[in-house]
Amino acid sequence: MKSLKDKVIIVTGASSGIGEAMARLYAAHGAKVVLCARSEDKLKAIVDEIRAKGGEAVYCVVDVVSESDCKRLVDTAVEKYGGIDVLICNAGLSMRALFDDVDLKVLHRLMDVNFWGTVNCTKFALPYLQASHGSLVGISSVAGLHGLPGRTGYSASKFAMTGFLETVRIENLKKGLHVMVACPGFTASNVRFSALVADGSQQGATPREESKMMTAERVAEIVEKGILKRKRLCLMEIEGRATHFVKKFAPAFLDKMFYLVMSREPDSPLK
User: Fold this and answer.
1) Which of 28, 76, 90, 125 keeps 20 to 30 A from 63, CA to CA?
2) 93: exposed, middle or buried (C-beta count within 10 Å: 0-12, 13-18, 19+)?
3) What is the pLDDT of residues 104-117, one digit of tens each?
4) For 129-184, how does the pLDDT look when each residue is reduced to its tens digit (9 = 90+)?
5) Structural domain contains residue 264
6) Cβ burial, residue 194 (10 Å; 0-12/13-18/19+)
7) Could you tell me if residue 2 is inside a domain?
8) Is 251 inside a domain boundary?
9) 142 contacts 239 by C-beta, under 8 angstroms
């Protein structure tokens, strides 16, 4: 794949953050983008802006936890554009609480969105991706490379996503399917504002300095390059590369560093 021009791309979780940035950028580069999320007002506004700039996009209101919603999303893309070239499973939810304290419903919710949302969308899109020799992309996290304290459910769901996608890759080795796991570090988005705390309510604020983080737009650029180069693993900036490298040779040291970093957050549950 030399460019995204005229490629049909589904982006889940496209109403804000990384998903919105990918939808806008890829449409600007000539892709036909199918956006999905739960907020119709936000999706409509983004699609209207893309179209106003000459891009091509449609939206579909979807909860990725619902199998029927995910099938309808795929059907919408195929009916509108005739097929699917790229599926980007980006819809996600985070958390911030120690496992000692957290209500198990929080972990179930994260697995439903982050893992099962990826599985559901992939199930219905896979035949079309196989036909186009397209790309299946999961937006994981550094937390999917190494356990992140205070984020047990988030790390577990991202590890599960990675295992699922790697297995799909192996099963499709002879079918021309490209599968990529993308692992952003801390990114400026609304994911920390909507993160669930111990009782399942939303955090409502971020414990980190968003202005010092990688932007969602930068993540979108790196993911695009990974798709075009058909990478297996897309690590971003120093956090992802360092985590991947250090884990191979000094995993115990990495444990201590992750604990130290997370314990220094304002109101950290580790204190």
Assistant:
1) 28
2) buried
3) 999 999 999 999 99
4) 999 999 999 999 989 999 999 999 999 999 999 999 999 999 999 999 999 999 99
5) no
6) middle
7) no
8) no
9) yes
Which domain range does residue 41 map to? 8-245
* Domain CATH code at residue 47: 3.40.50.720
Residue of 26, 59, 81, 154 marked catalytic: 154
State the DSSP H helix or E strand holding residue 66, giving kind and residue range, or none if neither: none
**Structural domain includes residue 257:** no
Instruction: Take residue 236 and report the two structure tokens written for it.
Output: 């971003």
- Strand ranges, E, within 77-204: 86-89, 135-139, 178-183, 187-188
Count of Cβ atoms closer than 10 Å to residue 254 Cβ:
19
Tokens at residue 4, please?
């995204």
- For the question of residue 154 being annotated catalytic, the response is yes
Domain count, the chain: 1
Written as six digits, the tokens of 151 are 């984020």
User: In the chain, which residues have pLDDT < 50?
Assistant: none
